[in-house]
Amino acid sequence: MEVYEGKAKKVIPLDDGKAIMEFKDDATAFDGSKKARFGGKGWLNAQISAHLFRVLEENGVKTHFIGVAGDNRLIVERLRMYPVEVVVRNVVAGSLKKRLPLREGTELPEPIVELYYKDDSLHDPMINRYHAKILGISESEIREMEKIALRVNEILREYFRKRGITLIDFKLEFGKNERGEIVLGDEISPDTCRFWDAETGESLDKDVFRFDRGNLIDAYERLYQRITGEAPSRRL
């Protein structure tokens, strides 16, 4: 079976309908034009994703997460992934501040859900439901993904608020399992979310690397400790 390798992860299929998702220490930004490697990043993203998947499962959201398979590996249910990313935004940041006449940091009156087509050659363009139908994704499937994404937002926004962190925005990916169910896949980590300290506004996510705002591993370790209550024991 074919091994899929992306910028930050490798997915290794197994024979029993499962897969190993291996998190790499590589970091990329701006369509891969900025690259670096950080020892311990893969461990942190794997452990943070595992922790947040458990939180979601405990609150009734079905995910592909099965268990931890090592320092930087998770065991997951194998899915047939949709070629879209679902982005939920709570606060103006990133590309949204270029598209709306609102200042960065403005809290939105309600979450915004956006769809993006996964294609590096096209720079992952934003699409709508009409585009999705052309790509073979039905409106009912999009509505289900959006519904799950908003439920994830509801759960995680409150979870982080209690820990002094603002969930600014995040990206989710979905797939179908062998039973035809739409399931949350991929990862939930500081690589795919924006987290700001609720008091200082300091970034605790990949923006630290994107915009040279400090030490990436220090930021990820602080996020890990805030959400788990434990000091990280990462493997370099």
Main sheet: strands, sense, barrel: 6 strands, antiparallel
Whole-number total of structural domains: 2
CATH evolutionary superfamily of the largest domain: ATP-grasp fold, B domain
- Helix-strand sequence: EEEEEHEEEHEEHHEEEHH
Q: Look at the helices and sheets and give the structural class.
A: alpha+beta
CATH structural class of the largest domain:
Alpha Beta
Over the alpha carbons, how many angstroms does the gyration radius reach? Answer: 17 Å
CATH architectural type of the largest domain: 2-Layer Sandwich
Q: What is the strand content? A: 25-35%
Residue runs with pLDDT of under 50 for 5 or more positions = none
- What's the mean pLDDT score? 96
CATH fold-level label of the largest domain: D-amino Acid Aminotransferase, Chain A, domain 1
Proportion of residues in helical segments: 25-40%
**Shape, principal axes of CA atoms:** globular
From the N-terminal CA to the C-terminal CA, the straight-line distance is 29 Å
Summed up, the helix count is 6
Total strands: 13
Give a written overview of the molecule.
One of its GO terms (biological process) is cobalamin biosynthetic process. It comes from Thermococcus siculi. Residues 3-226 form the SAICAR synthetase/ADE2 N-terminal domain. The protein has 236 residues and is of the alpha+beta class. The chain has helices at 41-58, 96-99, 129-134, 139-161, 207-210, 216-228; strands spanning 4-5, 9-13, 18-23, 26-29, 34-37, 65-70, 73-77, 80-91, 107-117, 126-127, 165-176, 182-184, 193-197. Strands 8, 9, 10, 11, 12 and 13 form a six-stranded antiparallel sheet that branches. Strands 1-2-3-7-6 form a five-stranded antiparallel sheet, covered by helices on one side. A two-stranded antiparallel sheet has the order 4-5. A hairpin with an 8-residue loop joins strand 9 and strand 10 (126-127). Helix 1 (41-58) runs parallel beside helix 6.
